[in-house]
Amino acid sequence: MAKKILQNQTRVFEFILLGFGDLPKLQVLLFLPFLVIYVVTMAGNLLIVVLVVINRHLHTPMYFFLGNLSFLECCYSSTILPKMLSSILAGGESISTKACFLQFFIFSSLAGTECYLLAMMSYDRYLAICKPLDYVVLMNGRVSFQLSVVSWASGCFVGTILTSSASWLSFCGPNEIDDYFCDVSSNVRYISCSDTTFFELSAFVFTCVFTLPPFLLTISSYGFIIATILRIPSTTGRQKAFSTCSSHLTVVALYYGTLMLVYMLPRSKDLKHMKKVFSLFYTVLTPMINPLIYSLRNTEVKEAMKKGFRGFIFYITP
Q: Distance (Å, rounded) from C-alpha 245 to C-alpha 20?
């Protein structure tokens, strides 16, 4: 009883996000690149969303998934980077426990959704390249919409389970999170005064169960795609297809690889700084390069941009 009262008295109502506060001399050098990354990320992804919505030629399953991915990346970046930029300037940023759990819920939901969206996009390309005659039947507007709903619902389910499980733990100090966003699952053993063994184990198993299937689907789809590309008789055709496929695989490897390193490496203070660096790849870097890799290099997207620009010039010209 006395222990319970003591815990209630020392219960934490806010956390301090340390971010990169251990590098005070590099605050300006860190702030400016991350600010540019945020602006470029938002501009590139919003451009893709607008083009997919207003251009009828892009109303296909492939661009529907790309539009979903770009919208997700806008939400992803807006969830993490503004608070991160504020933390860099201040050398640390306070956040209430409720806001911290809300950020963790949004982050984990979007991360789970992105795993499924990448899988759906790879499956769409598999059907288009390996089964072109059946593509229209197997992947139409209704099917792509249903797959998109499944992706978002699965991500939200992952986020809900992880956040609700973490909320049952007691947090009574220390209240400092050595990270640039509220990644509760990665830092829970350092900020909770409860026994976190069961939570960490269940979170690990649950995350693996829900992220391994889309990862395997993504890898197997690209495996079949590569096998089909190798059978293309034209050397030019093979090179063009390989160029596109290798770019997509680079993004997938970067996202999944760093995600697995952060959450599957042993939890130790010696690895915390390394994990913080690795987490920048899937929280900051991939949202910025996804529009370039998946969309802005595409001929149809370039044509849509040209038409949109000409239409804008015609509209503003007296």
A: 36
Contacts of 301 (CB under 8 A, 6+ apart): 48, 51, 58, 63, 295
Q: Residue for token digits 């640390």?
A: 92
Q: How many alpha carbons fall within 13 Å on the CB side of residue 60?
A: 13
**What are the contacts of 252-255 at 24+ separation with CB within 8 A?**
252/118, 252/122, 252/218, 252/219, 252/222, 254/281, 254/282, 254/285, 254/286, 255/114, 255/118, 255/281, 255/282, 255/286
Beta carbons of 192 and 170 less than 8 angstroms apart:
yes
pLDDT at position 23 is: 65
CA geometry: angle 310, 316, 318, nearest 5 deg: 115
pLDDT along the chain (318 residues), means of 10: 46 78 70 91 91 86 91 93 84 81 92 92 89 89 93 92 85 78 79 80 78 88 87 73 73 83 69 78 88 73 69 55
**Helix, strand, coil percent values for the chain (each to nearest 5):** 80, 5, 15
CA distances to 104, 149, 194 from 172, rounded to whole Å, are 19, 38, 9
Residue type, position 89, single letter: L
| pTM for the full predicted model | 0.86
- Predicted pLDDT of residue 220: 92
Strand (E) positions, 97-220? 176-177
